[in-house]
Specification:
It contains six helices and eight strands, in the order βββββααααβββαα. By secondary structure, the chain is of the alpha+beta class. It folds into two domains: about 80 residues, Nucleic acid-binding proteins (OB fold (Dihydrolipoamide Acetyltransferase, E2P), Beta Barrel); about 160 residues, de novo design (two linked rop proteins), CATH 1.20.1440. It has a five-stranded mixed beta barrel with strand order 1-2-3-5-4. Strands 7-6-8 form a three-stranded antiparallel beta sheet, with no helix packed on it. A hairpin with a 4-residue loop joins strand 6 and strand 7. Helix 2 runs parallel beside helix 4 and helix 4 packs parallel to helix 6.
């Protein structure tokens, strides 16, 4: 039976039969993969806890008729261990996994940028950013903006998303695609507090030093706009967002 290797992050699992599980994974070279881990629910399973959600693993697969089969698993990063002991980080991590699952829709289509963003976000949640620790919601918001942008829906933050009039502007519309001027503002557009536009631009570019002095008011306002924008571009919204403490 032909085999191949790849590294991947476990996005979610569900039961199959009495002792197996189907894993949904985002991999470095093969994009989204659905595969079977046989016997994983037995107490004597060779996989142990290595194939739980959040696990970053090096895997060997055997090609199957409908689903491939996981034959070996080596842990690269056990993100589930530190996240499982911190509710705030765990719930924001769940949002990150759900977003990756929603945005990468086609199986077996390469999605390297999404994979790298996912691993980077989980690493920042557990070990901090290159500029030091940040609140879990700030890391989540940066990931959401960047992942949605990679999927082709980058928010417009420096000019009107409808008429391209230069900013700054004081309204934000997820439906239109970002900030909007007074002439283009649709009903229901949110007000953008001073400093929030610059804060969101820093999150989108991954400029962590620029977020160091963002006060809690700006962070909360920005987080609400990011959540609305991400929910709009993931069709049915993100269920895990309802569990995040802000």
């Amino acid at each position: 039976m032909p085999t191949y290797r790849d590294e991947a992050v476990v996005l979610r699992t569900h039961k199959l039969g009495e002792v197996d599980r189907i894993l949904t994974l985002l991999s470095r070279r093969h994009g989204k993969i659905r595969a079977v881990a046989r016997g994983i629910r037995r107490t004597s399973s060779k996989f142990g806890g290595r194939l739980e959600p959040f696990s970053h693993v090096d895997l060997q697969f055997a090609n199957g008729r409908t689903l491939d089969i996981v034959t070996q698993a080596v842990t690269l990063h056990a993100f589930s261990q530190p996240l499982g002991t911190d509710y705030a980080r765990y719930t924001t991590g769940q949002v990150i996994l759900e977003t990756a699952d929603r945005l990468v829709t086609e199986e077996r289509e390469p999605a390297l940028q999404q994979f790298l963003l996912l691993v980077g976000a989980l690493n920042a949640l557990t070990a901090g950013t290159a500029d030091g620790p940040r609140p879990p919601t700030m890391i989540m918001d940066s990931y959401l903006l960047r992942a949605v942008a990679v999927a082709g829906y980058a928010p417009t933050l420096s000019e009107c998303a409808r008429c391209a009039a230069p900013g700054p502007h004081t309204a934000f519309s997820p439906q239109v695609g970002g900030v909007v001027c007074g002439n283009c503002r649709p009903p229901g557009a949110a007000w953008v507090r001073p400093g929030v536009g610059e804060y969101l631009a820093a999150l989108l570019s991954g400029d962590w030093p620029a977020t160091r002095d963002a006060d809690e008011t700006v962070q909360r306002a920005g987080s609400g706009l990011v959540s609305a924008f991400a929910a709009w571009h993931t069709d049915r919204g993100l269920r895990a967002l309802g569990h995040v403490e802000r």
